[in-house]
């Protein structure tokens, strides 16, 4: 490192991220009710079931519910400063519309927080991460119904009152913009996607935005020091060609995501979004009280997930790209992961700069990583995974984070996704692994659930210890 090499600020929050439904298992223990995930054995790629079925890996997941101490000890060994996890709503309110919370569920997260405190790891809590109580989906059609705002307020208040003194950073809805693409998983909307009207879909969006502002209000009333963030699925869209119409198409695609941040940060719907709704014939029911809530209770910071970029074009000859819940068009200049997600480290610098320029709020990268097939091999200290591909991916993305910080962007921290192998959200596979820690569990449900340190485990430990100084500029990293 030379004197001119940019660096990470002191206190940068290095860590990892998970979600309850993808790690905890124990789907019917401790008084937990069912969530939408318990009837999604194939993620978003297969139809949901009526009841939980044995082929649903999330029912046991990686058994974090019983092994959290061992897992948090491993996070501490890597030197985590922060751990992002979600609270399973149906552990706290098993049906979702009860008056009183389930004490056993609350006590579980007390124990998780105790363990984090033991190691001085800061918690970052997602209130709702794709795990709406199933009863709310089936009885109310999830967020399509305004009564959800009240249920969520009660749930959020319960969490802030119980954990507010111990948890500084909170996120309201994971990837809130994903409801436009996956209404059941993201919004608990039971009506099949093909039958769901745009009127109901956008009304659900509005209810979530109001609920997010309401939660922010409650948090700040309880303790003005609590930091509440929104969480956006970030994908930069590039024009496929310099044709101005492609440039505009890419801008429109990005605005579908920007709109959610615009409301959270600026406190009102942007004109371009209102125009889009009008053109669709959607008339949102927005009360004066809603408007005031949105305007007065904006977020403290903006968080986002970043895995990939995509392209847009007006051309009819589109080659649709795979990717994280929203597709776009294939970018011929980029390599892709084994699951077809475009690998674009520079896109992360682009997003960081764009969001900072637009909103001027501190940013938190709360998901990033490479889903890949890992092979467990013998190592000097026991079984391990030689995951140089994952180290390269993360190294190259973090080099771009460092560049963005040098550009003047305020970045609070970085929590890599699936810091321990977990069940994939989109495909419900175990074989799509993201972790520094290998978990012996397989797509057919077999495995001992033993944990093993991958090569990336040691790499991340050294990276954190050096506050990012061990990153390397690799030639052709963007190719
Ligand atoms: C994000 C979600 O979209 O991407 C996570 O917030 C998810 O829940 C992650 O696991 C990676 O996606 P996948 O489909 O590979 O699990």
**Straight-line distance between termini:** 23 Å
- Return the domain count: 1
What does the average pLDDT come to? 96
Bound small-molecule species: 6-O-phosphono-beta-D-glucopyranose
How many β-strands, per DSSP?
Answer: 14
Q: What is the CATH domain class?
A: Alpha Beta
The DSSP helix count reads 14
Read across the widest sheet, the strand sequence of neighbours is 1-2-3-4-5-7-9-12
CA-based shape: globular
- Report Rg: 21 Å
How many strands, which pairing sense, and closed or not: the largest β-sheet? 8 strands, parallel, barrel
Query: How large a portion of the residues is in β-strands, by DSSP E?
Result: 5-15%
In CATH terms, what is the fold-level topology? TIM Barrel
Please characterize this protein's 3D structure.
By secondary structure, the chain is α/β, with parallel strands linked by helices. The chain has one domain: Glycosidases (TIM Barrel). It is built from 14 helices and 14 strands. It has an 8-stranded parallel β-barrel, surrounded by 5 helices. A two-stranded parallel ribbon has the order 6-8. It has a two-stranded antiparallel ribbon with strand order 10-11. The longest helix is centred in the middle third of the chain and has 25 residues. The model has no long low-confidence stretch (mean pLDDT 96). The structure holds 6-O-phosphono-beta-D-glucopyranose (BG6). The site of 6-O-phosphono-beta-D-glucopyranose has 16 residues, from loops. The site of 6-O-phosphono-beta-D-glucopyranose (BG6) has 16 residues, from loops.
């Amino acid at each position: 490192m030379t004197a001119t090499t940019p660096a990470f600020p002191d206190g940068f929050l290095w860590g990892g991220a998970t979600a309850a439904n993808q790690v905890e298992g124990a789907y019917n223990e401790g008084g937990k009710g069912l969530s939408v995930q318990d009837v999604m054995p194939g993620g978003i790629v297969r139809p949901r079931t009526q009841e939980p079925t044995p082929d649903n890996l999330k029912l046991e997941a990686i058994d974090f519910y019983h092994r959290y101490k061992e897992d948090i000890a491993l996070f501490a060994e890597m030197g985590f400063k922060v751990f992002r996890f979600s609270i399973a709503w149906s552990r706290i309110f098993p049906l979702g519309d009860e008056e009183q919370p389930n004490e056993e569920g609350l006590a579980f997260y007390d124990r998780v927080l105790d363990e984090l405190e033991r190691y001085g790891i800061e918690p970052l809590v997602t209130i709702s991460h794709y795990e709406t109580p199933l009863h709310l989906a089936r009885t109310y059609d999830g967020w399509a119904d305004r009564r959800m705002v009240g249920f969520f307020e009660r749930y959020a208040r319960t969490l802030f009152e119980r954990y507010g003194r111990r948890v500084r950073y909170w996120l309201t809805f994971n990837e809130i913009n994903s409801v436009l693409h996956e209404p059941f998983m993201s919004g608990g909307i039971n009506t099949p996607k093909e039958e769901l009207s745009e009127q109901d879909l956008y009304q659900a969006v509005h209810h979530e935005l109001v609920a997010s502002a309401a939660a922010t209000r409650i948090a700040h009333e309880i303790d003005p020091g609590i930091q509440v963030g929104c969480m956006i699925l970030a994908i930069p869209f590039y024009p496929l060609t310099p044709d101005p119409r492609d440039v505009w198409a890419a801008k429109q695609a990005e605005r579908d995501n920007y709109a959610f941040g615009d409301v959270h940060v600026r406190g009102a719907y942007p004109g371009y979004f209102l125009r889009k709704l009008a053109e669709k014939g959607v008339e949102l029911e927005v009360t004066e009280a809603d408007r005031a809530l949105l305007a007065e209770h904006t977020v403290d910071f903006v968080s986002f997930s970043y895995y990939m970029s995509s392209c847009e074009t007006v051309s009819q000859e589109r080659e649709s790209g795979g990717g994280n819940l929203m597709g776009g068009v294939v970018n011929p200049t980029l390599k892709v992961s084994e699951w077809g997600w475009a690998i674009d480290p520079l896109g992360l610098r682009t997003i960081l700069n764009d969001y900072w320029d637009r909103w001027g709020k501190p940013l938190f990268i709360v998901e990033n990583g490479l889903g890949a097939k890992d092979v467990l091999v013998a190592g000097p200290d026991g079984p391990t995974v030689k995951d140089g591909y994952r180290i390269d991916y993360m190294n190259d993305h973090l080099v771009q984070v460092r560049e963005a910080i040098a550009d003047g962007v305020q970045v609070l921290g970085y929590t890599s996704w699936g810091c321990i192998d977990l069940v994939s959200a989109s495909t419900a596979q175990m074989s799509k692994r993201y972790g520094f820690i290998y978990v012996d569990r397989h797509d057919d449900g077999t495995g001992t659930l033993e944990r093993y340190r991958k090569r990336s485990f040691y790499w991340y430990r050294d990276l954190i210890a050096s506050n990012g100084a061990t990153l390397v500029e690799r030639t052709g990293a963007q190719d």
